Amino acid sequence: MALINLKSGALVVWAGLSKKCKNIPNNHRAEYAINGNNMNAVKAILVTQSQVINSSDYQDFGDIARQFKTSKEIDQAISALNNAIANANEV
Length: 91
Description:
Elements (H helix, E strand, L loop, with lengths): L9 H5 L16 H5 L2 H16 L7 H7 L3 H20 L1
Helix pairs in contact: 3-5
């Protein structure tokens, strides 16, 4: 019921809970798609994930994973994230 009480109704429309949308969810009605911040959100998520497994400032999940002899996998993940960040920056 909380969804129906939203002032803007944006979540109700996105989730397809309004009569107008007839129970058909659609990502194109989501806030990021409407205001053009899709790529900004993607970039922020990728950078955050990279910091979680590859931070030079503190011990991170990558360091812990390396202690369990998974250096190859972590290096692959870091490389993939760096490539994804570079590709997102080109868009």
